[in-house]
Amino acid sequence: MAAPPPAAMAVPKQITHRTTALLHKSSATLHYTFAHSPTSSNILLVFLNGLMSDSTTWLPVLSAIIRARPSEFPSMLAYDRYGQGATEDKDPQDIGKEKGHGHDCADAAEDLRRLLEEVAMEELGMRVERLRVVVVANSIGVAIARLYAQGYPIFGLLILDSIMANSKFDFWPDPDEEGFDQRSLPEDVTVEVLREQRKKFLAIFHPDNINKEGLSRRDLARLLPHSDSPMLGKEGDRPLVTVMGHGFEAFAEESQRTMGTPKGLSMKYSNPVWDRYNRGLARLTDADRSKGPVQATGCGHFIQRDDPMLVADETLELVDKIMAQPSTIW
To answer: Are 115 and 61 in contact (CB under 8 A)?
Structure first.
């Protein structure tokens, strides 16, 4: 994709950076980015990033939305969870617990609720219950969004290359298993390369492994064992959901560049498994309220980084659909 013109790189003045301390974790400070809507709309866009990125990856998306709707963009919130990005403080909940496993995605979903309660009052002067929340999430942010939606209402969800929450990221055949047939491998893959890639991926992505943020994935498969359940919201009042996955070719190239993964492994194994997972995610809401899965051509795992205009367009499409619905929030 061509680089945006210089003028498009400047962050609009409506985007501001703030800090807060959540009431239930008052010893730690959270950094967040906020843009106030110029209208009285009660829609709030909430952006959730993954483990290997931070809230700055959303700035091009926020900027694109503001430029597309300068007089009517919705209020928008992005933030860095504890221990990532501009939030230097670690999660107070981790104190005295096993390193890297002091809090999980369910805890992060509750933190999100507390943050929304504070932001709703401090920034918008209303209770969170009056907001129509639309979540835009990438990677493990999707898992957090799904867990949040199990306890609290959302009106829309844009899924960007979700983490496969029930996976150990063991996509590929095990060459040491009985019955393994070397002839089944893609042409660019040897048994030695297969072993090396399996070892490398499990060392980084296995749920037991810890990360800088300290967000445990150990129980994620228990929290979200299926891609298509539990469904979001209540029967007759489910949110709009758009599912977008990475571009197959772009992801294969990205994996080759960053992990040394032969393209054949991604194309034969990883991409089909991820696509099946995305098809399940599209069933988290009623069929008439679901879109996708759509393949984000030219994008790797971080779709918001690779094509912020695409994400902005899909987000605004959700907003327009929600605006066209009668609001039950008073």
So the answer is: no
- CA-CA distance, 163 to 145, in Å (whole number)? 12
Residue carrying the six token digits 């932001």: 119
Distances (CA, A) of 42 to 156, 246, 267: 13, 31, 43
**End-to-end CA separation in angstroms for the chain:** 43
Helix, strand or coil, per DSSP, at residue 142: helix
Contact 150, 230 (CB under 8 A): yes
Separation CA 264–CA 270 (nearest Å): 9
Q: Which of 163, 150, 154, 165 is nearest to 46 (CA)?
A: 154
Among residues of the chain, what percentage have pLDDT more than 70?
96
d(CA 56, CA 77): 12
304 neighbors 296 (Cβ within 8 angstroms): no
The kind and range of the H/E element at 18 are strand 15-20
Tell me which DSSP letter residue 237 carries. Answer: B
- Is the distance from CB of 240 to CB of 314 less than 8 angstroms? no
pLDDT digits (tens, 9 = 90+) for 102-139: 999 999 999 999 999 999 999 999 999 999 999 999 99
User: What are φ and ψ of residue 118, in 5° steps?
Assistant: -70, -45
Q: 162: which strand partners?
A: 139
For 103, the token pair is 């809090």
CA-to-CA distance for 254 and 235, rounded, in angstroms?
A: 39
Q: What separation in angstroms does the CA of 292 have from each of 45, 166, 323?
A: 20, 20, 21
* Reduced 3-state DSSP string for 279-320: HHHCCCCCHHHEEEEEEECCCCCCHHHHCHHHHHHHHHHHHH
Residue 34: φ, ψ to 5°: -140, 145
Report residues of the chain scoring pLDDT below 50. 1-8, 330
Is the bond leading into 293 cis (omega within 30 degrees of zero)? yes
Whether the full predicted model's pTM is greater than 0.70, yes or no, is yes
